[in-house]
């Protein structure tokens, strides 16, 4: 998912909430009252609860992501996936009781997506995307990246592609040259609570799109982060069905049950700009730089 150029800047003036087309994304605030007891020595300093799961995720990311040009080995992917599989909305300060997630009906106008960045360094970033009902993160890629997605709340449709073998593309020769053949990797509905998923630079559905069926929050672990300067800018795509430009011959790989589509690179869709908000959930302790 895109972080950086093209997005609307952060709106810190709203504090913990941001008006998102009539909807507010908020965080749980620690309102627990600690009763003082007579005759018992008062606790001098209130210690906030430790964000164990988020800290574990951060520490694992620091160990696992080695920077541009690297992909975590399978055992590291398993480690991160296990941590994410067990994470709950509360681990990042969210709850289904927040008004944003209770607003089941669509919003007026274009339902804008909001994002917040928990942390970002040269090797990885942790972000949460908030989609109101009907909100869309359009088809986009993750060049050279390994990305873990964990749907924390809500239900969304996900469609993802990987580029097809160039030989298959050249066999289906009736397509205009600006279109490129891609395999459909996923085309289905995801509803929380659910396990995390992972995509790689060339496999696992590196090009993907989300459409929220209900107000949703998805946690992204991205390594390395987008960087225009380092050649990892985000590209957007428009999809066409395979049949729209097939030459009448058999679809390549159809015997294997594979499904295909044509992708055209486009400018960032105007109605897909996002609003950034400050992250106010549990903090991680950065004991050393990542
Ligand atoms: Fe993405």
From TrEMBL:
Pfam families: PCO_ADO. The keyword Transit peptide does not apply. GO terms for biological process: detection of hypoxia. Residues 1-22 are annotated as: Disordered. Keywords: Iron, Metal-binding, Oxidoreductase. One of its GO terms (molecular function) is metal ion binding. Belongs to the cysteine dioxygenase family. This is cysteine dioxygenase. The lineage of its organism: Eukaryota, Viridiplantae, Streptophyta, Embryophyta, Tracheophyta.
């Amino acid at each position: 998912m895109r972080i950086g150029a093209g997005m609307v800047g952060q709106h810190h003036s709203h504090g913990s909430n941001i008006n998102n087309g009539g909807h507010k994304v908020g965080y749980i605030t620690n309102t627990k009252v600690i009763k003082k007891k007579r005759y018992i020595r008062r606790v001098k300093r209130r210690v906030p609860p430790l964000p164990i799961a988020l800290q574990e995720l951060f520490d694992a990311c620091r160990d696992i992501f080695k920077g541009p040009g690297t992909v975590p080995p399978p055992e590291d992917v398993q480690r991160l996936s296990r941590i994410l599989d067990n994470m709950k909305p509360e681990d990042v300060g969210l709850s289904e009781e927040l008004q944003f997630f209770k607003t089941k009906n669509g919003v007026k106008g274009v339902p804008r997506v909001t994002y917040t960045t928990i942390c970002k360094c040269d090797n990885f970033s942790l972000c949460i995307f908030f989609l109101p009902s009907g909100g869309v993160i359009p088809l986009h890629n993750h060049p050279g990246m390994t990305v873990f997605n964990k749907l924390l709340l809500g239900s969304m449709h996900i469609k993802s592609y990987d580029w097809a073998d160039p030989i298959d593309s050249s066999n289906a020769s009736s397509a205009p040259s600006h279109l490129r053949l891609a395999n459909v990797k996923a085309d289905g509905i995801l509803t929380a609570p659910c396990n995390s998923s992972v995509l790689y630079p060339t496999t696992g559905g590196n090009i993907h799109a989300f459409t929220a069926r209900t107000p949703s929050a998805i946690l992204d672990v991205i390594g390395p982060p987008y960087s225009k300067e380092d050649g990892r800018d985000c590209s957007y795509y428009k999809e066409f069905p395979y049949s729209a430009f097939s030459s009448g011959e058999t679809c390549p790989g159809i015997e294997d049950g594979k499904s295909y589509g044509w992708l055209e690179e486009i400018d960032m869709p105007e109605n897909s700009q996002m609003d950034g908000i400050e992250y106010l959930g549990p903090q991680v302790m950065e004991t050393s730089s990542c």
